[in-house]
Amino acid sequence: MGNITLKNVSKSFGSTTIIPNIDLNIEDGEFVVFVGPSGCGKSTLLRLIAGLEDTSGGTISIDGRDVTREAPAKRKLAMVFQSYALYPHMTVAKNIAFPLKMAGEDQATIDKKVKDAARVLNLTNYLERRPGQLSGGQRQRVAIGRAIVRQPSAFLFDEPLSNLDAALRGTMRLEISELHQQLKTTMIYVTHDQVEAMTMADKIVVLNAGNIEQVGSPMELYKTPKNLFVAGFIGSPKMNMIEGAPAEKYGAKTIGIRPEHLNISTSSGDWKATVGVAEHLGSDTFLHVQADDIGTINVRADGEVAVKHGDTVYLTPDKTKLHRFGADGNSLAA
Amino acid sequence: MARAVTTQHKTIATAAAWIVALLIFFPILYTIITSFKSEQEAIQGFNLIPSGTFESYSEVQQQSGYFKFFFNSVLLSVGSTILALIVAVPAAWSMAFSPSKRTKDILMWMLSTKMMPAVAVLFPIYLIFRDSGLLDSRIGLTVMLMLINLPIVVWMLYTYFREIPGEILEAARMDGASLWNEIIYVLTPMAVPGIASTMLLNIILAWNEAFWTIRLTTTNAAPLTAFISSFSSPQGLFWAKLSAASTLAIAPILIMGWFSQKQLVRGLTFGAVK
């Protein structure tokens, strides 16, 4: 079981408030991603749940048990750190065995569990090596191995992939998702990368300046962002934000339209524009166009689109996918 | 542009280095030479060639019994070092990984105690030792040496511990390690090189400590420093015997220092360059 509830949780360091007040419920077995720009308090929130930082106010409960004042070890959570945080003086086997040894398990059980974890994570041939002799991806797998052997009620991941190169990041992302499918254990994953958030999460928590901006499934956040911040943060390339006359036409202070929801035509449309740089990715083409009276707009067109720098084009937003925001930055009801 | 180093430069630099090293080492060398002279030879003036007699050594041993002092020196230096580490490891741990606003001040204050001349507290300490019956006791002196060197031990360990990433200790905490398990299984093994060089340096400092060891002992707890000073007696100076005693006193620590010089240099320059 791994139901985690945060009530009125706050955290300050001296006079600096990192997290003013947060309520959050994480269901058992959910894959929850905390996402936000750096300094938004997402790592601090994770460390509060882990017990590595003390809360300044509020309560944290795991499976209905108040753990706010409990030591990290007592919370039955496992954590994977950005720097892997492996014990450099121990072999891979001893690293994985460490939590079991601390729990006082007998040697036969430890050996069996270490072997099982190593098999799952493809580490069987590396058990006698030291962390220094492993590659980044292998180290991260050892860190995950150390986390899974304890059978914790939840896993906490603190930007675990940000030290890996792009290709490896993609592979490890799949491995962690696969692991979640196998174990069905609650996972809380912190990242600043919205692609990781979108691809892995059951539920995304978007944080900004210590506040939760929105909680929802990836598609909810994509389709119905509650405010400008979420709209701008989720989705790649970023949503185009347009103010002024074109927005007023729709009765809003700001309108947002995703690059993939713009129709591009060389003959007619709502907004006249001039093509700037065109990035051909093969499957898609990202166009940076300069629209009259609006400014730069990003358009995602299909790979075969035949426009070049300096061409005049016409853009038409898909009205059903248009987002309207009021003066306070919040989304206006459709 | 790299500086041009010619063979001639190198030869001069090497020669200069040897001269400086010899100058520094000369007093010790002359002590060793003198210890192989007879008393007559020793007072006859400067002479680098001894007759090679061992009579001073055998007389020194007969007169005072070297091994009792040697045993005390080992006991005091090793004992005080172990005691200091027991106190300093947790202290340095808390300062390195759980610092408060005042941690820097405490470190400075600890170091400032080393700036005070020892003689300033001779009187009160002597009285405390006398009144609690610790004069000439091995336990009293071990505690005294431990206290004297504690600031340096804490400082050195603090510097080493600061180099250990905090996340690794946090990982241990998440893995269910208690505070002691964290220190025993994770911190200490990672800090072994640092702890080893701290230990070596502290043993040397304690071994060479002469101010308190001479003043607070008479016979029972007296280490080799007292053994040497007993040969500058009221009967007059016996240079050869004094030299033999000195040689015997510094030999063990010199040999230990020679074998552990790699660790020592690392300890002394640690943190100097990051």
Overview of this protein structure:
Chain A has helices at 42-50, 92-102, 107-120, 136-148, 166-183, 194-200, 218-223, 228-233, 245-248, and strands at residues 4-13, 16-26, 31-35, 57-62, 65-66, 77-80, 154-158, 186-191, 203-208, 211-216, 240-243, 254-257, 262-265, 271-280, 284-291, 295-302, 312-317, 323-325. Chain A is an alpha+beta fold and 334 residues long. Chain A folds into two domains: 4-231, Rossmann fold; 237-325, Nucleic acid-binding proteins (OB fold (Dihydrolipoamide Acetyltransferase, E2P)). The model of chain A has no long low-confidence stretch (mean pLDDT 92). Chain B is 73% helix and 1% strand. Chain B starts with 6 loop residues before the first helix and ends in a 5-residue tail after the last helix. The longest helix of chain B is centred in the N-terminal third of the chain and has 32 residues, at 66-97. In chain B, strands 1-2 form a two-stranded antiparallel sheet. Chain B has a single domain (66-269), classed as MetI-like fold (Orthogonal Bundle), CATH 1.10.3720.10. Chain B contains 14 helices and two strands; from the N terminus they run H-H-H-H-H-H-H-H-H-H-H-H-E-E-H-H. With 274 residues, chain B is mostly helical. At the A-B interface, strand 6 and helix 2 of A face helix 8 and helix 9 of B.
CATH domain topology of chain B: MetI-like fold
Order of strands in the sheet with the most strands of chain A? Answer: 6-7-8-3-9-10
Q: Which runs of chain B of at least 5 residues are low in confidence (pLDDT < 50)?
A: none
Please identify, by name, the CATH architecture of chain B: Orthogonal Bundle
Q: Give the strand tally of chain A.
A: 18
Number of domains of chain A: 2
State the helicity of chain A in percent bands. 25-40%
Helix share bin of chain B: over 70%
Shape type of chain B: globular
* Terminal CA distance of chain B: 24 Å
The number of E-state strands of chain B comes to 2
Low-confidence stretches of chain A: none
Order of strands, main sheet of chain B, comes to 1-2
Strand content of chain A: 25-35%
Helices of chain B, by number, come to: 14
Would you identify the CATH H-level superfamily of chain B? MetI-like
Share of β-strand residues of chain B = under 5%
